[in-house]
Fold each of these.
Amino acid sequence: MCTLDKMLIKGIRSFSPDNQNVIEFYKPLTLIVGQNGAGKTTIIECLKQACTGALPPNTRSGQSFIHDPKVAGETEVKALIKLRFRTFREEPIVVIRTFQLTQKKLALQYKALDNTLQTYNRETGVKEALAYRCADIDRHIPVLMGVSQAVLENVIFVHQEESNWPLADTQTLKKKFDEIFSVEKYTKVSIP
Ligand SMILES: Nc1ncnc2c1ncn2[C@@H]1O[C@H](COP(=O)(O)OP(=O)(O)OP(=O)(O)O)[C@@H](O)[C@H]1O
């Protein structure tokens, strides 16, 4: 089974860009408890972002996901999410995602910078790093976790604002179930 080890958050929502905020995940269960606005949702949003590359809903294309430069008293905020998890084979994997939010004259400018995946070569035991340009990390991580992207997005890390999808109209419901059960794989099968 895939397990989460720990995550570092810098410069996301209320998490300051100046501190190293590290959350350690315990086995078999970690409960996240805190007052309203403490950052519980942000932790789940960061887990989802690190694993799938998806931004939370209503973030104005990422702008409100990054710590507001005005709150930091800066013109630019650099943000980082670093997640360490273990694959179902117990191999440690590190995902690093970096972002930047700049206050321009008239508007804020959001940029996703680097995406890096550190893996271990099972044969040599040497650390290997894959950069975003070399591999589609968003497709690679669900494979390493042994779970599909649709299950990560709609079930495991479903955002509280989107968690009502099981009560949606039949068309939306069918689309979600098709994604979750990878129906396309079966409808596209051709018999030789
Ligand atoms: N872009 C931003 N810059 C700085 N702070 C932000 C930004 N976006 C949100 N925040 C702050 O981050 C916090 C959001 O925290 P979050 O929603 O994760 O808390 P929560 O513990 O899940 O709260 P609740 O229990 O109400 O759901 C709020 O205090 C909000 O003011």
Amino acid sequence: MTAQNSGQTASPLRLGIAGLGTVGTGTVKIIQNHAALLAARSGRPVAITAVSARDRMKNRDVDLSAYAWEDDARALAVRDDVDVFVELVGGHEGVAREAVTAALRAGKDVVTANKALLAIHGQELAELADAEGRVLRFEAAVAGGIPVIKAMTESLAGNQIRRVMGVMNGTCNYILTRMESGGLPYEQVFEEARQLGYLEADPTLDVGGIDASHKLAILSAIAFGTRPAFGSVEIEGIERISIDDIRRAADMGYRIKLLGVAQMTGRGLEQRMSPCLVPADSPLGQLQGGTNMVVIEGDSVGQIVLRGAGAGEGPTASAVLSDIVEIARGVRIPAFGQPAQALSVPQAARTAVPAAYYIRLALADKPGALAKVASVLGEAGISIDRMRQYGKHDEEGVAPVLIVTHKTTPEAIDHAIAALPETGVIAGAPVELRIEEV
Ligand SMILES: NC(=O)C1=CN([C@@H]2O[C@H](COP(=O)(O)OP(=O)(O)OC[C@H]3O[C@@H](n4cnc5c(N)ncnc54)[C@H](O)[C@@H]3O)[C@@H](O)[C@H]2O)C=CC1
Ligand SMILES: N[C@@H](CC=O)C(=O)O
Ligand code: NA
């Protein structure tokens, strides 16, 4: 083995790590535990020189005594003894944005796990990185430990991508699957997700579909050559999904997933994030716990399915290290796979791609009630594929009815859902969910 590839005598790659929470602590642990392995694979030692977090005195179950401490991440980002600034603080404004910007301007390469920052300010940061000749890497930002950024920017670079789809939020998948399999209440499974380190600092980003949409916007930029634009994703979270829906969907052979889809259409790139039904026996339907799955369809390669841990300390830190080792090796790829100025593919405002839909409603026990529902759907141009009426009526005399439609447009469904309460034969608001073809 030569001195270069043994990694022992070459100059070290010096890291400044800001943020010592779930991901930051995990990153420090890997660097400490795998020093020889990382040096051998990088061709040079990988060394932390300084760290920063909010509370210096906090017990983090990791020895930080060998590293300089900075109270301000922005000061850490521009230190002379830092080659790579590793941002693991989070948030799309304030310290994270300012420190990353300062680091790039100061000639540092940047590694981050911050999908919010990239989805909202990715274009500006990628342009800055290009202008400064620095790299901005973010494998951890999408689907945690799954090497999806690398797959998309490098391994699939020869493909025209047709569709990218997947479950990209560990918290939501954990909640949806544990509620069903464990028969557990929302509050309990939410707390379990917290213990596992899955939650964002603001968990409404998770359950509101926002975190997953940040990830979809990032993937779209790489896959389709569009600018990362979180504002262009049509978003709905899992807040309105009840255990009732999870069970009823299962009765019809489906599972509910918070599913992101990005695909090219004649109107431009459509990006949607919403709770959808997928066949229970499909790979997406089988996905349990905090696991993520990304399905990529390319013109030459066909369909690729990537599956793995999407959140938590070890898997996310593993992805951070993949970026660090690539930088140490001298790999220099534009943030979104091509120069940021070249990202230009137009985005559509709202999805128009037809799909089958699942509708659940509470139907009054009255003669002709079902006929009135069928007539509303018929008037909207929606044809019914399957239907199930539950015989047991509650004390208000209503019983659940489940309908699976043939393919129709989102506009037709909106129209029918708005018209159904006017029939006077249903109680409450009907629930509608898209059935995505997987
Ligand atoms: N937890 C996970 O499974 C994953 C998290 N991420 C992303 O990684 C980043 C970090 O996430 P976590 O480690 O889970 O968060 P965390 O809340 O556990 O840790 C955040 C760290 O940043 C520090 N911090 C907060 N404000 C600061 C400031 N003004 N200056 C310096 N340090 C500050 C905190 O003291 C803490 O050490 C976020 O962008 C998150 O979205 C990405 C993938 C998975
Ligand atoms: N909160 C996120 C963490 C990883 O990105 C999730 O639950 O997936
Ligand atoms: Na990843």
